[in-house]
Amino acid sequence: MIHIVTGPPCAGKSTYVREHAKDGDLRVDYDLIAQALGSANSHAAEGLIRDAAFGAREGAIAEALKNTDADSWIIHTSPNEEHMKSYTDAGADFVNLDPGYDVCIERAKTDGRPQQTYDGIEKWYSGKKGRTAKMEYKTVSFKAADDFGKISGYFSTYDEIPDSYGDIIAPGAFTDTIKAREATGHPFPLCVNHDLNQIAGQVDSIEDTKKGPLMTASFFNTPLAQEWREIVKSGAVFQFSFAYDVLGMELPTEAQKAKGITRILTKLDLFEVSIVVVPANQNAVVTDIKAGRRNSKKDADAIRQAITLLQSVLDAEEDQDGEDEQKANVATEEPKASNPERDDLLGYIKSIWKGEEKDESQD
Fold first, then answer.
1. Neighbour-count burial for 143-159, b at 16+ CB within 10 Å, e otherwise
2. CA-CA distances (angstroms) from residue 88 to 17, 76, 85, 120, 153?
3. Are 220 and 200 a contacting pair, CB within 8 Å?
């Protein structure tokens, strides 16, 4: 018999197999394979060891499927469709272990698991066991600065303006989930378009203000993260979104119904915050987008004008250089002629700088 043991990270799959498999049974456990191939931390294999471990696991699974005379135990967190078809065709027995999200998180904390274990738990529960990971979009403000870049803003607001689902979020809806995550010591991931395979950074802090949860996140020093940092700085992408599960809700009053409100969300389980390209709520607009010390759109216009003026100055200087070379041996010293383009350029740069100083004094 082939036994397929599924479940999220920290569900106890390895323990289950250890307790039920007999001597001589084939045991396919990715973590143990990675450890045998040289990984110091069997739960965080990287590079060549990770790739080799996956390859070895696939080879072991193939052998198990070919030889159904012996018992095999295959630990597989989330089998894809191809795996599921192979397992089903082989008449495999499925054992699903699901101790619950909170239990898995607590086990990960107790065991000192790496961040990718927490990410795996989030990913598994975001799409399974009825946890309805739902996407919410609100008006936010961006800022990017520091070594590898930071971004901040309200990823949700406590107002009575319903979103595209007709929901509003009550003050305090994030309180428990923020405290629970802080207790683990592991930050929420900052993803791109809700793709847990594209984590661009981490949420450093969330301040639950009267207006809403004010988040500060930092970009990782990775090619993916720095690419998205530049995209955010450009102003082309300017909205946050977050995935969550509804743990508590209330029905609206008649007056709230008249505003288009269908539900009041009173308690949420936050999974991740994302930078999004296309929001569900097209009316969600950003009132302030900044990158580094400057406003992105304003910078773009300023730079274009500065380049135009600079090119005029360079062209004029090039023409003047040719004339000066011809007159070098005969010309007498005269006061240097004024260059209107240069004066305009210097004046324009000074005006930008003064405007920047004014903006910073208001921040």
1. bbeeeebbbbbbbbbbe
2. 20, 14, 5, 25, 48
3. yes
- 319 and 227, same structural domain? no
pLDDT tens digit sequence for 120-147: 887 777 654 434 445 555 545 555 555 5
Amino acid identity at 269: D
Helix (H) / strand (E) containing 124 = helix 115-126
Of 71-80, 87-96, 299-308, give the lowest mean pLDDT range: 299-308
Radius of gyration, CA atoms only, the chain: 29
The domain boundary, picked from 81, 105, 126, lies at: 126
Q: What is the pLDDT of residues 100-114, one digit of tens each?
A: 888 888 888 888 888
The DSSP result for 249-308, as a single string, is: EEPPPHHHHHTT--EEEEEEEEEEEEEESS-S-TT---SEEEETTEEHHHHHHHHHHHHH
SS3 6: strand
Q: Where among 72, 91, 126 does a domain terminate?
A: 126
* The total number of structural domains that make up the chain: 3
Element of type H or E holding 340: helix 340-362
What's the domain range around 152?
A: 134-292
Contact 29, 61 (CB under 8 A): no
The alpha carbon of 244 is separated from its chain's Cα centroid by a whole number of angstroms, namely 14
**Helix (H) or strand (E) segment spanning residue 355:** helix 340-362
Q: Are residues 149 and 284 in the same domain?
A: yes
